[in-house]
Specification:
- It holds the Pfam family BrnA_antitoxin.
- This is BrnA antitoxin of type II toxin-antitoxin system.
- InterPro entries: BrnA_antitoxin.
- By secondary structure, the protein is mainly α.
- The chain has one domain.
- The chain contains four helices and no strands.
- The radius of gyration is 26 Å and the shape is elongated.
- 0% of the residues are buried.
């Protein structure tokens, strides 16, 4: 047990003097933000109804089908005047 305590104290001393590249102090661990970073342009949750064939066609393209629908709608907005 005494060797463990001595090793632990040595590790703490080395960490405090910066002998290791990445030392995570308790304050750093608490301050670390978890999850995804906040988007500059966050998406808005909504409910919209499409024909079943439209949804099936986009879902058939695999993961990211909702993003592809969003991209198609944004592309349409670039070439058309809404309203």
């Amino acid at each position: 047990m005494a060797k463990f305590e001595a090793d632990m104290l040595q590790s703490i001393d080395e960490a405090l003097t910066g002998q290791y590249g990445r030392v995570h102090t308790p304050a750093q661990i608490v301050a670390r933000r978890r999850g995804r970073p906040v988007s500059v342009e966050p998406k808005v949750a909504t409910t919209i109804r499409f024909d079943a064939e439209v949804i099936q066609a986009f879902k058939a393209t695999g993961r990211g089908w909702q993003t592809r629908i969003n991209d198609v709608l944004k592309d349409w907005l670039r070439t058309h005047q809404p309203g």
